[in-house]
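Quality-control log, excerpt.
Job 1 of 2 completed; input and output follow.
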Amino acid sequence: MISLAKGQRIDLTKTNPGLTKVIIGLGWDTNKYSGSQDFDLDASAFLLYAGDKARDINDFIFYNNLQGGNGSVVHTGDNRTGEGDGDDEQIKIDFSKIPSDVTKVAITVTIHDAMARGQNFGQVTNAFCRVVDEQTGREIMRYDLGEDFSIETAVVICELYRNGNDWKFSAVGSGFSGGLQALCANYGLQAG
């Protein structure tokens, strides 16, 4: 298993021949937070085309739109508490089904209702992203986000991107203030 740092890129399919289906597992703890409101983090995926933009709302896969890209990207469902060990939310990706004009899949996490609840990623600890081979259950790589955040309410965790016939993983770890709307705008969508 390979551990990545922010900014690192790694081959996924080239170094793992036959790899077509992966599970992106995302996890976090909110033990720094003592408010009365629940702390609900939401994983999402954006299908991106040339220019790193989504075409329409169907390219945004999240708890209210659990799959996209001809079923190539599937969100397994919302976890509203983040309790317990292991993955809090998972997104499954089948590289063989991704439409040929999709150049990237961006994986993001946002804090639900962050402004109203006074929450941000400065209160989140032990956030991680891992890539698992769905067929064997083997963890291929892991990216621990560290404690780089303060006021951000949305984070682009990683991007999986096409490189010729192969797919690579990029550990992005960039935060946004303005939550889901800022994230959607970044990818050319209106969050409404």
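Job 2 of 2 completed; input and output follow.
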Amino acid sequence: MTLAFPNAIDFHCHLDLYRDHLGVIRECGESRVATLAVTTTPKAFARNVDSALGSKYVMVGLGLHPQLVAERSGELPLFERLLEQSRYVGEVGLDASPRFYASFPEQRRVFDRILRACSEQGGKILSIHSVRSVTWVLKALEENLLNPSCVPVLHWFTGTKSQVYRALEQGCYFSVNVEMMKNVKAHPLIRLIPPDRLLTESDGPFVELGERPIRPSDMPETLRILGEIRKTDPAILSKQVLETFRALHSSGNSARGGMQRTLFRRT
């Protein structure tokens, strides 16, 4: 895959859930924001790929959201069939919050199988949900994502300091958004993440900026807030995030190593 050289990174966005999703895709090009369009079910994958055709800035992830496992686990064989078509996997993971805890055993089974399939094929970059389940997510990664060419990115991480260190040891990256940064308790965790493991995300349209759903084009504001928390100039932070994104796609430069090279083309 060849991407145009971006100005910013949105590494977790539900593009297909915006009312004007085709307009948001065009905005990604106009604002030059490399955006990972995560999907929530395997059946949504093809539609998202079709919508993003011709975009230099939109990548599509193959997903099976843990909150939908109770009703969509039957799509797991379809997920496995489609996996060869996508380098990106997301949104996947675990959710142990009260509303979804009844399906947690099935979530774990599905997540383990997804990780093993990714490990078998190799070269996958995963955006991972871990609400109230960081311990189980890290255990699943340790036991099932054994191929070093696969890179896990923890989306909207809400764990502890010790879990940050454990995740870093396992080669994890982290993507942060403005809603996550509203929680002052998360600031020490955000400051713990090394620059070469840090990415930005919107998680739009679920996250709001002001009184509207955030969009990929709002990444400069995300960087501004992130810069305040990390006491880093947003311009410097932007360069660091772009370099981290490039490293994910550069052979031998990722934390887990071995990623196939993706060329970036300046426009």
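Post-run check on job 2. The longest strand covers residues 88-95.
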